[in-house]
Design brief:
Shape: elongated
Strand content: 25-35%
Mean pLDDT: 88
Helix content: 10-25%
Radius of gyration: 22 Å
Order of helices and strands: HHEEEEEEEEEEEEE
Low-confidence stretches: 1-34
Number of helices: 2
Structural class: mainly beta
Distance between the termini: 50 Å
Largest sheet: 6 strands, mixed
Length: 244
């Protein structure tokens, strides 16, 4: 069953690749290795949250570890993606695990409790790029914090604040792996402009949708689902023909 779930999740990832990109951009030439969460991102999209919930809800994807009091030689890591680490914390105290990203980028740390999560690089405490609650129906994950992590050779110290029962589940996923491209729908006809888009794993800007191929985004009567009117020199259905 474990392999079946992983295969399903892998397929979902393949269908939902998306990246954070703050600017409007052409379909071609977009960088696939954005280094940090875009400015203005207020929440992650459902693609990464739903994927993380699949692993949280699958007992076969759980691994139990025991946090240490501060970073020590026996501090466990939570490096593997597509897995929930069930972390036992010191009684009534903050617990420490470590994390080394396989790829630089923005990393989302989902948790089953609303406790704090702080990432340190040596003596430096990093500032989170984003924190918000998780609202996926039937999911045990309740909060997520995103950090921009640039080094793939660093064991980042992850401090988990006190939690009820001294136990918290953590799922770490790279944000850029869940990017989706959205297209501007300026005329609100449910068809987007293929030339104006954003590639993001965040909630898209207002007026952006996943459906494209509108050949005139300034006229709601012109889109691929419109009925062609012959004899008026207008391609209403965007098929490249004025007669059908």
């Amino acid at each position: 069953m474990k392999m079946t779930m992983r295969n399903i999740c892998g397929a979902l990832v393949g269908l939902s690749l998306a990246a954070c990109g703050p600017a409007l951009e052409e379909e071609q030439g977009t960088s696939q290795q954005e280094a940090s969460l875009e400015a203005g991102c207020t929440a992650l999209s459902s693609s990464i949250s739903s994927h993380s919930c699949l692993h949280s809800n699958n007992p076969a994807d759980h691994l139990s570890v025991t946090a240490t009091s501060g970073l020590t030689g026996s501090t466990p890591d939570i490096n593997t993606t597509h897995m929930q680490y069930d972390v036992t914390l010191p009684a009534g105290a903050t617990g420490t695990v470590k994390f080394r990203p396989a790829t630089a980028g923005s990393w989302a740390f989902f948790r089953t409790q609303g406790n704090t999560l702080t990432v340190k690089n040596g003596a430096t405490t990093l500032s989170p790029a984003l924190t918000h609650s998780v609202s996926v129906s039937g999911c045990g994950l309740v909060t997520v914090t995103v950090y921009d992590l640039a080094s793939t050779t660093t064991d980042y110290q992850v401090d988990l604040g006190t939690a009820s029962g001294n136990l918290v589940g953590v799922v770490a996923e790279r944000v850029e792996d869940y990017r989706v491209r959205y297209y501007q729908d300026a005329d609100n006809d449910t068809w987007g402009n293929s030339s104006v888009s954003v590639l993001t794993a965040c909630v898209p800007p207002a007026g952006y949708i996943t459906q494209r191929y509108d050949c005139n985004d300034a006229n709601a009567s012109i889109n691929p689902s419109a009925t062609e009117i012959t004899g008026n020199s207008v391609d209403e259905n965007c098929n490249g023909s004025l007669t059908n």
